[in-house]
Amino acid sequence: MVVGAGPAGLNAALELARHGQAVRIIEKRRQQTAHFKALSINTRTLELLEPVGVTERLLAEGSRVPAVHYRTLKTELFRIDYSKLEHRYNFMLALLQTDTERIMESRLNELGVEVERGTSLISFDQTPTIVKAQVELEGVKDVIEASILIGADGASSIVRDLSAISFPGLVMPDEWSLAGARMQSPWPIEPANILLRKEGMLFALRIKEDLFRLGSNRPYVL
Q1: Residue 129 lies in a domain
Q2: pTM of this prediction?
Q3: Domain presence at residue 173
Q4: 141 is a domain residue
Q5: How many domains are contained in the chain?
Q6: Is pLDDT above 90 for 172?
Q7: Which CATH number characterizes residue 153's domain?
Q8: Above 80 in pLDDT, residue 152?
């Protein structure tokens, strides 16, 4: 049983399904997120997703980012050039998390597994051989029995809380801000730019055409 249908949970379910294991995956969200969330897929992740038949589909929809350019207002300072990697995936792939999840879920459906949306984990009990998980869907409670329970339910994980596993994290000194925007780029066509100024930094990633993800270590990035 997998709790959480983000990329991590979907990949766990995909790996189990392709190895012939019976698996159920629940997700408390009724629909996929409409927000950008994560949007870059690195070389190692593309490798790991090959056996489940997802990588080629991601490549078909994503934009390849060959380098990240570090600039001032007037000039380019340096770049991190992924094309120098001696690898078949010598780039970062830009793709909205909502699209990544859609592609992975579609592949999971092909393997005979449906995401049980709107279903929340309430509690679970476990022995050395079995986990009994109480779940709820539209006010109706049920029990799912599984040999293993995988928690892939994010930073506010109920699986982690119920297991008494700590997640202290840290507080960053700056207030960061993010935005998705349609805009004309003030820089050349390269898709990834980091503008360094005395007041702070601005990150701009071209996802496709005129759609950008912007980020800054200052509030109110726009």
Answers
A1: yes
A2: 0.91
A3: no
A4: yes
A5: 1
A6: no
A7: 3.50.50.60
A8: yes
Amino acid in position 173:
P
Does the pLDDT at position 188 exceed 80? no
> 128: domain range?
2-39+96-162
Residue 112 lies in a domain: yes
Measured CA to CA, the distance from residue 182 to residue 207 in angstroms comes to 10
- Residues in contact with 73: Cβ distance below 8 Å, sequence separation at least 6, in sequence order: 195, 197
Instruction: Dig out the tokens for 222 from the structure.
Output: 């726009």
Contacts of 99 (CB under 8 A, 6+ apart): 61, 62
DSSP string, the chain: -EE--SHHHHHHHHHHHHTT----EEES-SS---S----EE-HHHHHHTTTTT-HHHHHHHSEEE-EEEEE-SS-EEEEEEGGGSSSTT-SEEE--HHHHHHHHHHHHHHTT--EEETEEEEEEEE-SS-EEEEEEETTEEEEEEES--EE---TT-HHHHHTT--------SS--EEEEEE---SS-S-SEEEEEETTEEEEEEEEETTEEEEEESSS---
Q: Residue 212's pLDDT band (boundaries 50, 70, 90)?
A: very high
Lookup result for tokens 């006010």 = 139
Amino acid letter for position 31: Q
* Alpha carbon distance 58, 129 (integer Å): 37
CA quadruple 44, 45, 51, 56: dihedral positive or negative? Answer: negative
Q: How far is the C-alpha of 201 from the C-alpha of 191, rounded, in Å?
A: 17
